[in-house]
Amino acid sequence: MVWSRTNQLIAAAAAELGARAEPLGREHTDYFMRLTHGERTAVVSKTRSPFLTQVAQGLANNKHLSRELLRARGLPCAAGVLVDEAGDIHGPAVRELLARHGRLVVKPNWGNRGVGVATDVRDLATLIRARDRARAIDLDEEVLVEPFIAGTNLRVAVIGGRASAAVEVVRPKLATGRSAEAQVAALNRDPRRGTWTAPSLRSMDQIEAEEDLEGHLEVYGLDLEAAIPGEREVEITGEELEVIDRTEVVHPEWLAVAASACDLLGVDVGGVDLRGPMAAFTQPTAASAGAALLLEVNVVPALHLHALPTEGPPRPVFAAFVAYCLQLPGAPPPCAVVRV
Question: Which parts of the sequence belong to the ATP-grasp domain (predicted)?
Answer without folding.
Answer: 67-283
